[in-house]
Each structure stands twice: as C-alpha cells, then as structure tokens.
Amino acid sequence: MTGGSGTTAVGARAPIALADLHDSLADPVLDSMTFLNEIAGRFPDAVSFAAGRPYEEFFEVEAVHRYLRRYCDHLRDEHGLSEGQVNRTLLQYGRTKGIVHHLVATNLSVDEGIDVDPEAIVVTVGAQEAMFLVLRALRSDPRDVLLAVSPNYVGIRGAASLVDMTTLPVRDGSRGIDLVDLARVVRSARAAGQRPRALYLVPDFANPAGASLDRDTRLALLRAASEHDLLILEDNPYGLFHAGGDRPATLKAMDDEGRVVYLGSFAKTGMPGARVGYVVADQPVAGPAGIGLLADELSKIKSMVTVNTSPLAQAVIAGKLLEHGCSLVRANEREAGAYRRNLRHVLDGLAARFPKTGPEGDRVSWNTPAGGFFVVVTVPFVVDDALLERSARDFGVLWTPMHHFYADEGGSHQLRLSVSLLQPPQIEQGLDRLAALIREMRPV
Amino acid sequence: MTGGSGTTAVGARAPIALADLHDSLADPVLDSMTFLNEIAGRFPDAVSFAAGRPYEEFFEVEAVHRYLRRYCDHLRDEHGLSEGQVNRTLLQYGRTKGIVHHLVATNLSVDEGIDVDPEAIVVTVGAQEAMFLVLRALRSDPRDVLLAVSPNYVGIRGAASLVDMTTLPVRDGSRGIDLVDLARVVRSARAAGQRPRALYLVPDFANPAGASLDRDTRLALLRAASEHDLLILEDNPYGLFHAGGDRPATLKAMDDEGRVVYLGSFAKTGMPGARVGYVVADQPVAGPAGIGLLADELSKIKSMVTVNTSPLAQAVIAGKLLEHGCSLVRANEREAGAYRRNLRHVLDGLAARFPKTGPEGDRVSWNTPAGGFFVVVTVPFVVDDALLERSARDFGVLWTPMHHFYADEGGSHQLRLSVSLLQPPQIEQGLDRLAALIREMRPV
C-alpha cells in the first residue's frame, strides 16, 4: 500500500495561521518550557543547573521489573486475584480514578498524617494533569480567576492558560506567602468583578523560590482562605526532601474545613518515567442529583482527557510503595541524602566564590532553603534569555532565568540553580563557570 | 503526625455548587461514560456486550517484562546507549513529543502505507489525549465548531465539550459519510456565523456504527474537505481488524493536501494498560517566528496537560513493535482471528434467533460490518437507559443504548453489541438473553 498515488491533488492547503489557534499558544508561559528545553538540547555538554529533574544515579530498569512483580504478588496474595485477573488489572483499560488509590491513601497517612477516603483520590498522569483537571472544573465563567503565589511553577500558569483562566500573582514575601497581599489581591479582583476561585502554592521548598511556610503561617493562611472563601491548591512535590529537622504538617493535614485540594506527584519520590501523580479532592459538590465528591467531577473530566492513567505505570509506583511499607520517606533515604549533600555543596560553593569581603560580596546574594531542589541567586545585572544563551555557549553552564516564573515583571535580576541532578564535581565545575560569567558582567 | 488537631476550625465550608463548575460537567456526554461504567459495575455477572475493550485471552504480564527488555536491547544495540542512558531513557522525564516516534513512523509505513516525518508525531496518553490536544488548539474562538460523523464515539464530543466547542453532527448515510449532508452542515454553519474547523470520523469499522468508507467515498471526502477548507481528523483504532480481503488506504495515505490529522491508538493493537496513542500533525503553522509544524503546537499544549507520555509505557509498546518488525498486523494475528470469529458468531447468532420468517423477522434487524468491534441492532421499541438497567437486572445481559452516540435525537430504537471481549459460549448465552428481552418487548 502506498500513499498518495492516484488521488486528486489540488495543491497543498495554506498553512494554518497561529492566530487561528488557541490563545494559549501565544502565551509566553507555553513558550517558556519550549525555550528552556530547546536551549538545554542545543548545549548538551554544558553543566546544567537548569533541569529540576530528580537525581538519576540510583535509576535502574531492573527495579521496574521488581516493582511490577511486587504489585502482582500483592494482587494475588492480599486481594486473592487469579492470574487472569492480575493480567487484566495491569494490561486492560482500568478505573478512571485509578487502581492504586488505597495505596496512595496509605502513603498519605504514613508519610504526611493526611487521612483521606481513597474514593476522594484521582490518580493522574503526573501532578500536571491533576492541575489541569482542577482548573478545568473551576473555570466555569470568564470572571473566574486563579491566585498563585509568585514566583511559581510555569505548569500552573500554563494549565490556567489552556482553560482561559487568568492567574493573579500573590507575593511570597519573607514567609512564603504575603497574607496582606493576598487580601489586597482578593479585594481588588472582586472589585473588578472577578471571582477568585482558588489559591495555588507550594508550601514546602517552593519551585522556584525554595521558600517554606512555617506552622503559624500555614494556620493563618487557612484562616485567610476561610475568610476570603477560597479553595487552596496545595502542591507538594518536594516536601520529603528537607535538609533535616522538623517539617510542619501539610495544609491538607490541618484542613478542618475541606478547603485544601492536595496535588501529589510521584515524579520526584517514585519514578518520573511512570508519569503518575494524583489529586485529593474530598470537597462536596451539590448538583441536581444530590451531593457528590469533587473527585468524581474531576474523574468525569479525566475520562475525556486521558481516559485513565496507565495501570502499568500505576503498578510500578504501587510496587515501589509496597516495597517500602508505603513510606516514600523510607524509599527515598538515599535520594534525600543526595539532595541534602548537593544543596549544601551549592550553598557552600557560592559562599566560597562570592565571599562577603570579595569584589561581589555585596552585589551577589542567594537564599538558603531548608530543603528542596532550588536556590535563587540575585545578581547586579539583568538576567534574560540572551544571557542564558551566552552563558551556555561561552561559559558552558545552564541555569534558569527567574523571569520565567513571574507572570509580571519580577525576577529580572535573578537566576535559579537546580541542585537535584548533579554530582559534587559537576557542581564545582558549574559554579566556577557561573562565577566566571558573573565576574565578566562586573561593570568596569 | 496527625491531621487537624489544634487548628482553628470554623466549620466545614459549604458544598461547591455544580453550577459553579465548568459547563461540560452538566453535558450529558460526560455522564454517558459514567453511567455506562456504573451500570457495568453494578451487574458484574451479566454477559457484557457493552465494553468496547480489546480481547483479554492473550494478556500476560510476562509480555510486559519481555517488551521492556526488547526495547532496552534496541537502545543498547541499535542506538549505542550506555546502561546509564538506557536507565534514564525509561525512568527519567522525557521528550514532550515522545521517545518512540521513529518506531511509530515505521509502523505507519509498514502497516498503513503512510509516510510521515517522525517529528510530526506527538506520542500521547491514548488517542483521547490526541483528540483533546487537537481540539484545544483548533478552538480559538466561540465561533469555532467541530463537525463529526454521527453516531460517534462519546470521547470526541466530550473532548470538544471540555474546550467549549460545539459539535455539529453529519449524517453517516449508507456510505459511512453523507457528503450532501456535510455540504449542508458546512453551509448552514457558515450562514450562522460559525467556523467549521475540522471533521471527525472513523473511516474503518466506526464506533459505534461499524461502517467503513470505500475508496471512492474517501477520495470524494478529500475533495469535499478541500472544497470546504476543512481539516479531517481521521481516527483509526480498528482498521487492522477487518474480516478479510482488501481494505482501502487510510485517508492520511491519500492526503496530498495535508488536510488529514491522523489519530492513532495502541489500545486495541498494542496494550490498553499502556495508555499510549499518538497524533500525526504535519500541517504547517504560520506564526510571527516563521513556519512550524502543528505537532509542535500540540506539544506545547501537551506540556501543560500531561508533560510527556510515560516513557516506561512507551517502552512497552516499542518492545511489542520491535518484536514484530514494527507490524501490528503481524502482532495481532491471533487477536484479529478472535475478533473475526466473534463477529461471525454474533451475526450468525442473531440470524439464528431472529429468522426472516420468524415472529420478529421484519421487526429486528442489524448491520453486517466487514470488521471491527461493533454490531448495531435495530428493534421495534424504544431503547433507553431504563431498558438497559432492566436488561441487566432481569435478563443478565449488558449492551449500549445507541442514543449515547448521538448528539441529537438519533438511535432511539437501536442498541450496540460489542463483540470484542467475549468467548463464543458467552456470546451464545448473551444472545439467548438478549432474544428473551426482545421477545418480552413484543407488543401483545
């Protein structure tokens, strides 16, 4: 069979005009991701502080085989499934809300002190799909807007853009969220006829700013959400990777009013290549047929986006959970150690290269997060995409201009260093290169 | 860590009003899927002609292990990847457009005579995500509408509903598409100020009607698309499962003008539990930065919906492709035989139970598709959801009321039988039960 011969060609059709495609495709936030990936691809030999991907040293495909076997054993031994039923569970289409929801609920209880009905969990294709489902559900009217602590992960603004939802930035301030600014944004949005539906934030080691909310700020935020009648979208991909010591409870664990929709990711704690995440949406929804769960509404949307999350991929994550008693803290002891080591190495390396008494001492500064993947460096010159390209080409080091994480004008003199993917020798080399770039930018 | 204690509870918030969520959640098409799944779950012992899921007899988890190993060998032996690179390819985040695009392109060439640039392929979370991405891109204005040959798969209307895109039905008629009706719908839509952007159809063994377009109709449709300036969304999940004999080339293989966006699924031919599909979108898009591929615009949207399709899941499909020389025709010889056998069995079984000379001879009829998963039965009474419930409860047989596949009033006296999942003894039993129901509905 060959294509094309004998058909009635009347010439190629005209190109589709980008202006005739959805507005999100002209939104800089969708281009951010493309640009950052593209430049990383063009300079594969550069030391990369750019990618927020998890540590790879412990990756082994053999673990995938082991996890699959472990989950199959679980289905046989704990649930009494026959061989045929095991095969069908992994290989056939599956439940829209997912098949590993009970294990996810156990994990949330073990690691986070969050007790949820497994029926309130929707297993998704990464936390990204979870964000998309929640925003698609909430955005029912052009007046609906999302609030997001800024700077923020581009994926939340991108998902909002896909559903024509405006994102209003809320300042992070010194405590991870500026509650005075939150009140101001809510007030001015309502005055302008907008409906703030939810507030998005990462309370633990935020991407990109690395900030965390202390317990008092969390309690105050929950009170503020109640006062302003907002849902909170709590995204928690980095919570397990603290630098040691106590971590305050998640917002969801403190959530007595059912205001928190919890976005979970296994990309950093499970396996990125499985693309499995989830959302806990135990909010009641009142419709003509009675009261249901928000999770079931999200499931209806999911059935028209991805139908269901690959049961095979879910099985891999389930096997990893089972192998560690459903604790991802235990499963990630080595990885958490590597992130702690790397974070310390980057912070020490910056201090060594930019001593307070040196020529850049008062002109280059950085934050000192208590965990997570990211450090933000502030410099006395404009950090734009052209500088990143020059850094990659002439200095062999990649990082992320912070302006990509702001919907407004913020971040113009900042860059984000991701510490998650490198080994100490690469960190040393990368920081040397970064220091050379910064020295060259010194005004003469 | 325990949740909730010590927080400032001020009582549970009020339920979210369904009316404050996106309109799609009140669209009957999203409820169709939920209702049909729910009733199947309530009557697990009924013989089910309802599910359009692929045949399960040959499912074996061991194949997953084998496919993964095969793909890893391929990466090592054909692409020279190191062990670390193999681990990262499967376990880390991956390219947004996918990692198995070259194998998909080879498969399209081998099985379908479609020659495409692998860069024009976006690997998706099933064909459902492909539909969503295309519709999200195309729906840029409230005037944009989708045409869809009716009756049709609920997933296309559901995806359209998520992006607030109206679907206008086009009659299938006796040839799989009624081109006179297509012209009428385009004309009246334009007269009403609407912009028909694309026409969706399944040219081979359509779900649910089983119809296929012959070669002349395909050529005429391509001419009509040119004349009306429409894109064609060609969805082809069942093409390989013909009952024998020649099959006309796909629209994409005949597409000289670049009008066809091709939606591919591995759910029926690869493995449903992998949730891997793809879209071929080689249309040029003209923007401020020059000419690009529609596939790259879809990729930008995908990065905000699911980030990328699980590389693990892609690896499983890739291994299956490699094991069969990238031919899914070869990979599915056993399955295609089972579907042929089942289709014949259902058609013969209907003929035996409703002979032309019997009491229902002129009142019960059915189509005779040349392949695929579905047979449509027409009966002399109204087929609604209440009848399905009665059929399941009192007669122990499930099927699908055809009205779910119509956006308008069609299908009121029809039911769909799916032949894909059963074995001959179950088919016999199921048809006996269906015949008993139909006899009981005979007017006295």
TrEMBL record, chains A, B:
PANTHER family: AMINOTRANSFERASE (PTHR42790), KYNURENINE_ALPHA-AMINOADIPATE AMINOTRANSFERASE, MITOCHONDRIAL (PTHR42790:SF19). Its EC number is 2.6.1.103. It comes from the Bacteria. The lineage of its organism: Bacteria, Bacillati, Actinomycetota, Actinomycetes, Micromonosporales. This is (S)-3,5-dihydroxyphenylglycine transaminase. Pfam families: Aminotran_1_2. Its cofactor is pyridoxal 5'-phosphate. One of its GO terms (molecular function) is transaminase activity. The keyword Transferase applies. Transmembrane segments: none annotated. Keywords: Aminotransferase, Pyridoxal phosphate, Transferase. It comes from Micromonospora ureilytica. Residues 88-434 form the Aminotransferase class I/classII large domain. InterPro entries: Aminotransferase_I/II_large, Class-I_PLP-dep_aminotransf, PyrdxlP-dep_Trfase, PyrdxlP-dep_Trfase_major, PyrdxlP-dep_Trfase_small. The keyword Transmembrane does not apply.
